[in-house]
Structures are given as structure tokens and as C-alpha cells.
Amino acid sequence: MRVQTLSLLLVAAYFAFLLGSLVLRGREISGPWLYLLRSFFPNWRFYHGFGHQPRLFVRTQDEAGQWSDWQMFIPRAPFALPNLLHNARNNLQLAQQNLVDHLAFDIQTLQDGRDPRELVSYQMVTRLAREWLLAQGRLGRRWQFEIRQVPPLHAPTADMAILISPLLEG
To answer: Confidence class of residue 136 from pLDDT cuts 50, 70 and 90?
Structure first.
């Protein structure tokens, strides 16, 4: 009973802190320590309109020095009836795409002269891309990822890239 009360108090304190921060600073949450709290909330910008969507692309270099084609990371979970009640895999994939969305937004709002590699979202997407390549058994000697704004219902093109990572070692 004491653990439940303590948990309830901590949750209440957390939301009171958020409410106080919003009242004192305006409607936008900002600051380096408040930045980390945004992972508790989904990215609601998809309600603003139907348009370009940020997508993660990766490519690898083999031992002969040949680069593979860019491949798009699209988290899709197969439909199964039991998943209507509990769908941890789909929730993870939605969180992964949400991370890509956050990185695209962070890049677009990045102050001039600031290196995007310093962003937490950049480092997390780097790890996501590496783990995806490892899971597929395609992590080569060198690899690279990029974030592109892909128009809906159209084939993605390289000129829609908003970020291309430097060459990364396998």
C-alpha cells in the first residue's frame, strides 16, 4: 500500500511540475532537462496536415568498397487478432518512427552553426539504424544513414534529404 501511495505522489508531483513549467514559461516546453521529459508524450504534429513525412534510410559498404542502395526503414507490424489487446512489438515500432520524427523536427529547429551530432535524438537514431542493420545481418565495414522528407504516395528521392550522416564504421 505504501508503494502505491508513493507512486501516486510521484506521478502527481511530476504533472504538477509540468503544469508549473508550462504556466511559468508559456505553452512550449524547452530547456535541456525538460527536453528529456518529452519522451513521455507522443508527437502530435501529424494532426497539422497531410504532407511530407520524415523517414530513415540506410546504406552499407561491403569489403570491395561498393555501396548498397538506400533502404527505407519502415516499421510495420503484421496484423494479428491477439494484438488488439497487447501489442508490444507495434508500440516499439511506433516509438522508433516517433524518434525519427523528433530528429527531423530537431534538425529543422536547430540553431545556426550547431552540430546535429550533439543532439540526443541524433545519437539515438544512429543506434537505431545500427541495430536495424545488425538485426538484418547487413552491417558492413562502413555504413551511413539519412533522414528524408518523403511525400505521401510518391517514391522518395534523394533530393528530399534533410540530414546525411558522416560515414560510420561497422
So the answer is: confident
- Average pLDDT over all residues of the chain: 81
| 3-class DSSP string for 63-90 | CCCCECCCEEECCCCCCCHHHHCCCHHH
**Is residue 58 within 8 Å of 132, Cβ to Cβ?**
yes
Q: How far apart are CA 32 and CA 29, in angstroms?
A: 10
C-alpha cell at 33: 532537462
- Note whether 45 and 105 are within 8 A (CB): yes
- H-state helical runs in 26-169: 32-35, 88-108, 120-136
Q: Report, in angstroms and rounded to the nearest whole number, the Rg of the chain calculated over CA atoms.
A: 19
Q: What's the farthest any 2 CA atoms get from each other in the chain?
A: 63
pLDDT in tens, 98-126: 899 999 999 989 888 889 999 999 999 99
% of the chain surpassing 90 pLDDT = 31
Cα-flanking dihedrals φ and ψ of residue 165, to 5°?
Answer: -70, 160
Helix axes 120-136, 88-108, angle to 10 degrees: 140
CA-CA distance, 40 to 72, in Å (whole number)? Answer: 26
